[in-house]
């Protein structure tokens, strides 16, 4: 069985996925804030 060496795994795909996840989270957060602002202005 091969010995595991810490830091030897290629993690580029995981980094791209995590970056996309953060971007999606930021967009979702922005849309939620926008929806709250629009709802508040519509009820004013």
TrEMBL record:
<keyword id="KW-0812">Transmembrane</keyword>
<dbReference type="InterPro" id="IPR012422">
    <property type="entry name" value="Cyt_c_oxidase_su4_bac-aa3"/>
</dbReference>
<dbReference type="Pfam" id="PF07835">
    <property type="entry name" value="COX4_pro_2"/>
</dbReference>
<feature type="transmembrane region" description="Helical">
    <location>
        <begin position="21"/>
        <end position="42"/>
    </location>
</feature>
<feature type="domain" description="Cytochrome c oxidase subunit IV bacterial aa3 type">
    <location>
        <begin position="4"/>
        <end position="42"/>
    </location>
</feature>
<dbReference type="InterPro" id="IPR036596">
    <property type="entry name" value="Cyt-C_aa3_sf"/>
</dbReference>
<keyword id="KW-0472">Membrane</keyword>
<keyword id="KW-1133">Transmembrane helix</keyword>
<protein>
    <submittedName>
        <fullName>Aa3-type cytochrome c oxidase subunit IV</fullName>
    </submittedName>
</protein>
